[in-house]
Structure formats: structure tokens, C-alpha cells
Write a structure and sequence with these properties.
The protein has three domains: 87 residues, Orthogonal Bundle (Arc Repressor Mutant, subunit A); 96 residues, 3-Layer(aba) Sandwich (D-Maltodextrin-Binding Protein, domain 2), CATH 3.40.190; 101 residues, D-Maltodextrin-Binding Protein, domain 2 (3-Layer(aba) Sandwich). The two termini are 55 Å apart. It has nine helices and 14 strands. Helix 1 crosses helix 2, helix 1 packs across helix 3 and helix 2 packs across helix 3. With 299 residues, the chain is of the alpha/beta class. The chain has a five-stranded mixed β-sheet, covered by helices on one side. Helix 5 links the parallel strand 3 and strand 4.
Length: 299
């Protein structure tokens, strides 16, 4: 089998290089050996794959068909080898990670810093910003996002569940009243976080069914921290992730409403571009984050 692969690889290398001499120089093998391998392959198949002259090399019709399949097969084998090596080798190299600023600073960074301490050969470029980041154009290895990946060109892996709460300040609720059902939100001022996946469409569970309520208000922000501050200032109700809402609820500065209609929780997703195989450093980080958030759940 190894000899068969050597013959196939020699055939592909010779055509890719444009000739036997060029292939011999590129791959450190003798021209005579490459010629023997290609001849042996043709003899085995019983067809001529290449037309050879002193000045030009071209593929026969059978050679073109064989080249297409053989080159794909060798690429798959090379990718498989690289994937296994990535899995067994210690993570190393530069790791570019993207996340929203507030979540990254408060929740994500401590988890990643533990990962770095455990893998000293990895260097980190952590980019925390409240905007949509194009992973391919900006060379990002993995982005941590709350909500499902909407771009079909990306792969998403769930890291942890994330819960949300609708909250308002005591002063706001005293002045405007407390909503008793999701539909009541239509009569309230609501702070819209444009970075939130649903933006002005808040989802709830009512009698086992998911309902979506379109909300509006005088304040639109692009940061959950700013949405929290707007709610604290009495400017309206806000839909906040648990890591921001829970401390404020516990202190009495904000009040949870519609607790019987628990907002359909989203999830923290690791999102990365489609590739034939996932780099070991990225796989190691994602595995670490899954274990970290299992041990340190985010409410």
C-alpha cells in the first residue's frame, strides 16, 4: 500500500511541478525514481497517464481523470495527518480570540488566562470590542459569542448555557407599574441592546410555547453594560444576561420581572471558520472553556 501511495504521489508531484526535473528538485527525490514510479503506476493501471516529450508534459484523458481523484485523495490524507498531529502536539503559537467587551472583561478573560498559564507556548491576541467581527477577513481563530452562529460559513460549538432576566429599577416600576405578562411590555419603556441577538424582539415561554414581543423605548445602546446602567437610571426595562442582572437583583438595585415567563436562554458559542481540520491550539482552548464553564457556570 505504501508503494502504491508513493507512485500516486509521484504522479501528482510531477504534474504539479510541470516535469520530472522540477519535481525532483522540489521534493528532493531523483528524477529516475520519479520516472520509475510513474511508469510503474501506468503499468499497474494498464493506461498511459502522461504524454512526455523533451519540452512538454501533458495528461491524457485518463490521466486528467486520475489526477483529479488522486490529488483530492492525497490532500485528504495530508489533512488527516495534520489533524492527528495537531491533536497530539502541545498547543503552541499565536491565538487570536474575539469577544464582546463587557463579557470578555468580566467573564471570559479569567478563563482564558488560566488556559495560558497551562500552555506557556501559546501567545494570545484577545480582541474585545462591541461590533461584528469578520473572522476570515480579520484573521480571527475563534470568536466567543452569545447566541447561535447565523453565518453558514462558520462552525459553532456550544460552550455553556446563558440565562437572561428582564429587570427594572424600583423607581421605574413604582411610576410605570409591573408587567404581569410578556404582552404587557408593549406598554412599557424598554432599553434595546442592539448587540443582543434579538435586538428589539424579546422571547419568552408562555404556556410551553415560545412567544416574541417587539419592544421599544427611548434608549438604544450597543452594550449590555450600558443597558444595565440605563435600567438603573430608571429609563426603562432591560433584558440583561444573568452575569449582569443577578448582582443588581441581589442588591435590590434592580427588580426581576416576568420571572414566571423565563426568557428562552441563549448560549455561549465558540465560532470559527470552516476548515478541513481545526488547529490544536483552538481545539484545546474550546475544550478548556467547556470544562471551565461547567465548573464555573454563568447564570
Amino acid at each position: 500500500m505504501s508503494q502504491d501511495l508513493s507512485r500516486i504521489r509521484a504522479f501528482v508531484q510531477v504534474f504539479d511541478a510541470g516535469g520530472f526535473s522540477a519535481a525532483a528538485r522540489q521534493h528532493g527525490r531523483s528524477k529516475a525514481l520519479l520516472s520509475k514510479y510513474v511508469t510503474d503506476l501506468e503499468d499497474y493501471l494498464g493506461v498511459r497517464l502522461m504524454n512526455r516529450t523533451t519540452r512538454k508534459l501533458s495528461l491524457t484523458e485518463a490521466g486528467e481523470a486520475y489526477y483529479r481523484e488522486a490529488s483530492q485523495l492525497l490532500q485528504q490524507l495530508d489533512d488527516l495527518d495534520a489533524s492527528i498531529l495537531d491533536q497530539t502536539a502541545a498547543p503552541r503559537g499565536l491565538l487570536r480570540v474575539s469577544a464582546a467587551r463587557n463579557f470578555g472583561e468580566m467573564i471570559l478573560a479569567p478563563a482564558i488566562f488560566v488556559f495560558l498559564a497551562e500552555h506557556p507556548d501559546v501567545t494570545l491576541d484577545l480582541r474585545l470590542e462591541d461590533r461584528f467581527v469578520d473572522l476570515v477577513d480579520e484573521g480571527i481563530d475563534v470568536a466567543l459569542r452569545i447566541g447561535a452562529a447565523q453565518d453558514s460559513s462558520l462552525i459553532a460549538r456550544k460552550i455553556a448555557d446563558m440565562q437572561h432576566s428582564v429587570v427594572g429599577s424600583p423607581a421605574y416600576l413604582k411610576a410605570r407599574g409591573t408587567p404581569r405578562a410578556p404582552e404587557d411590555l408593549r406598554g412599557h419603556f424598554c432599553v434595546v441592546d442592539t448587540n443582543f441577538q434579538g435586538q428589539a424582539n424579546w422571547r419568552f415561554i408562555d404556556k410551553g410555547a415560545t412567544v416574541s414581543v417587539h419592544v421599544s423605548g427611548p434608549v438604544r445602546v450597543n452594550s449590555p453594560l450600558s443597558a444595565r446602567d440605563a435600567a438603573l437610571a430608571g429609563l426603562g426595562l432591560a433584558l440583561l444576561p444573568g452575569y449582569l442582572a443577578d448582582p443588581m437583583i441581589a442588591s435590590g438595585k434592580l427588580v426581576s420581572v416576568l420571572a414566571d415567563y423565563v426568557h428562552t436562554g441563549s448560549s455561549l458559542q465558540a465560532v470559527y471558520p470552516h476548515r478541513r481540520h481545526l488547529a490544536g491550539k483552538v481545539r484545546a482552548l474550546i475544550d478548556h472553556l467547556v470544562a471551565w464553564f461547567e465548573a464555573h457556570p454563568v447564570s
